[in-house]
Each structure stands twice: as C-alpha cells, then as structure tokens.
Amino acid sequence: MPPPSSEPSLGGSRKQGVDYRPRGAGDILEPMDIDPALGLPLFSPPLDTEALASWFDSGYPLEFCASESFDPSFIRELSFSGFIPMACRDEEGGREILTPKLHRERAILDPKLVRITRTAGRDSRRFVLCVDSALPEVLERCSATHGEAWLRPPLREGILALAGHGAEGSLGRILSFELRDEDRLVAGEFGFLVGAAYTSFSGFRSESGTGTVQLAATARALETAGVLLWDLGMPMGYKEALGARTVDRGQFLALFRAARSAPLSPDFSFLPEKARSLLTRQL
C-alpha cells in the first residue's frame, strides 16, 4: 500500500497575491504567517482543528498547511479532524516541518462493500491478520518501502508516542494491522481510529499479493468490528478496485464527522484471525 499522497515540494509553492487568510473561521490563523520555505500557512497549537478543517472546505485552494510542532496531542487533534499527518524537511533551513493534509478529493469505503477478488481469497490461506502487534516495525517497514520524504523521523516518533498514550475518551487512537505468515510480517498498515471512522495513513507489503490480502482482510476486520467509514486518503486505482469511491472535501468531512460521532465502539478483540476465515465470514 503506497503512502496516502506525495509530500509538499519546498519552494515555488507560494502564489504571489493569494490571500490565504481564513474566511468565517474565527481567529484560528491570526496573525497569518507564511512558512518561507513552503509558502504555506504556518500555525502552532493550541489550535481549533475542527475550525481549521472547515476553513479548508470554505475555499482554501491547497491541501497542506505547515507547523513546526510534532506534539503527539497535536497530531491526535489533527487526525481527529480528518487531516492526514505528513512531514517534510527544509534542507536549507535545517528544519523538520509537519504538513497536515486535507485532500481536495478523498477515497472512502464502507467496509461491508469491499470487493474481494478470487486471487485474494486463494492467496489468503496461509496468513493471519493481527492488530496492534508491531506498530514500530510497521512504521519502519513503511519508511523503508516509501522513503522518508513524508514519514519523517519526528513524525514517526510522535505517532509512537501517541500510540503509547492509548485511547483518551473519544479523541481516537493510532491503530495498526499486521498480516503474518507464521512469525513473518509480510504486509501491514497503520492509521487512526476515532468513533466508527478509520483513516489509513500508510502501509507496505514485502511479497507479491500480500498487500491485496492485507487490504481485503483489514476491510473485513473493520466491518466485523463495527467501523462504518474507511478513509483511504488520496484516490488511486487500486483503491477504486477495492470498492472505494471518490468524494470532494466537503462530502468527506460530512461523512467522516458522521461516522466519527456514531454511538459505536469498534471492537477488534476477535483478532488475530486467519485471513481466510475473515474473507469467508458471513456477517
């Protein structure tokens, strides 16, 4: 599973004469600062991330903002509001920069509508799907697979620290899924669960076909646990093949907030389970 999207490029992204100030979102970005390297609005906690998301939807032309804070609680708040936490490095300035992303278009899937291919069913026989069994290794494998362009060391540290905090009320938590062949980790992903909404941040596969099995088994696990919305980030062909549909930013926020507020508490206590059993389970 590739990263959710490409990282923001340094330089050349600031458009002269464009007013990035919020309209109708209070004082969340006052005074407005622009990061000199990225040309993006620069902000710091404490921040009303719900108002920030609404501001993005009110006509903000880009998909990223910037911050120099990697505080785990800040990462949680951004994730709670529908942002995917990403990061980049300003080599010239020697800075690590958090670049939360709220896509103009998002791929989403109702887990019960997942399309499971015959190949995934056939190849699933020898695998087991686990949950929260190896987050540090999943992070390292994602970084090794996709590079550190956006999954920067301070972001990985913040995610690990956030996972170490556990769940705090209704604010959500980091979640990881691992596909294993006996003791070998062959595919996996990590993301954020809040209410009945789960957002995939990134994933990896180490053998041909294991990524397809992991995605299919994860979808069935999400369905079994009671998740209503699987947020897959940037639209891509393999996500469409899985059954995802593309929605615009406003539609995404409405659907995400509804699933986040659903009176459900997804339960993954049935994992680990054989992938084949998940794919053939009658719900």
What are the low-pLDDT stretches, counting only 5+ consecutive residues below 50?
Answer: 1-5, 9-18, 22-28
What are the secondary-structure elements, in order, as H or E? EEHHEEEHEHHEEEHEHEHEH
Give the strand order of the largest sheet, numbering strands 1, 2, ... along the chain. 11-5-10-9-8-7-6-12
Average pLDDT works out at 88
The fourth-level CATH homologous superfamily of the largest domain is Leucyl/phenylalanyl-tRNA-protein transferase, C-terminal domain
Rg measurement, Å = 19 Å
The CATH class label of the largest domain is Alpha Beta
How far apart the termini lie comes to 26 Å
How would you characterize the largest beta sheet? Answer: 8 strands, mixed
Architecture of the largest domain, CATH level 2?
3-Layer(aba) Sandwich
Number of strands: 12
Number of domains: 2
The share of residues in extended strands comes to 15-25%
Would you tell me the structural class of the helices and strands?
alpha+beta
What is the tally of helical segments? 9
The CATH topology of the largest domain comes to Aminopeptidase
Kindly state the percentage of residues in helix. Answer: 25-40%
